[in-house]
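2.7 Reproducibility. Because tokenized structures are sensitive to small changes in the input, we list the exact sequence used for Delta-1-pyrroline-5-carboxylate reductase kk1I, including any N-terminal residues retained from the expression construct. No trimming or masking was applied before prediction.
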Amino acid sequence: MTKRESNTLAVLGCGMVFLVSLLDLANRLLGALGTAILSGILASMADQTADDSGRLFTNFTACVRRKETGAAVSDKISSHANANKVEILNKENLRGVKQADAVLLACQTHLYKALFDEPGMREALKKKLIISVLAGVTTAQLEAALGNGEDYFVIRAMPNIACFVRDSATVIEKPQRTFPEALLHVTDTVFKAVGNVFYIQPSAYDICTALCGSSPAFLAVFIDSMVDGAVAMGLSHKDAVDMAACTMRGAASLVLESGNPWTIRHQVASPGGSTMQGLLALEQGNVRSTISNALMVAAKEAKKLGSKENA
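Resulting structure tokens (single pass, no recycling of outputs):
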């Protein structure tokens, strides 16, 4: 990406999609991911000065397929001070790519080939950074769909919906061929603006898609279950949600500090205490194996998303 006074990031896929099935999570959230990343970057710009060297992008283009989606995206980002830096284009992907210095590919998985097939699109994408957050679609698949992979700079990343609050756990796949350091820096900076970044080998990508991309939904189910229990015993729903969410956030901070979830478990569960009785109830319900299995199923499903494209 050339350094100039104005740099533009185009986000291809900003649909506001809601969950229907946990197994469909990785694909169904892609449009929402594009909006989440854009929202998080806009929020991060509020912490930067006008001459901040870390500010890689000054303008943004959000590409959508429906007017109502564009209106929803506009509403979602309206609270940001830099919302006026975002241009929303309806059914104008090519225009968005042409005026961009880098592209975030965040459409639903089954749409990427049709997007590349748009007249002039492959030429417009040449030599530009293409950051893909498509679950299950490998770099090799993307390069093959583009044509000559050597003409494109494609890198995979999997953030999660917490980009909205700049607390995502994002995994970035280490490029397997020579990749410009400047473009790696751009990718790193984009995702550090919305949370934490981890670099992984391609072999671990589908696992991390489930662990980082899907698990916020699993954790939300866990919180919701705790809320149900508290409400059943008389606590108000709002208080229960706030307390359960804050408790999970605090527990996560403790795990990050200690590096071992078992440390927290043993610190809280005293012999003969109420916490130990609650833990035994969880074990009787096979919660540990159920959660582990959910993660493995999600990882397998994420891999299938890419496999279906080659069927």
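The chain has two domains: 8-200, 209-299.
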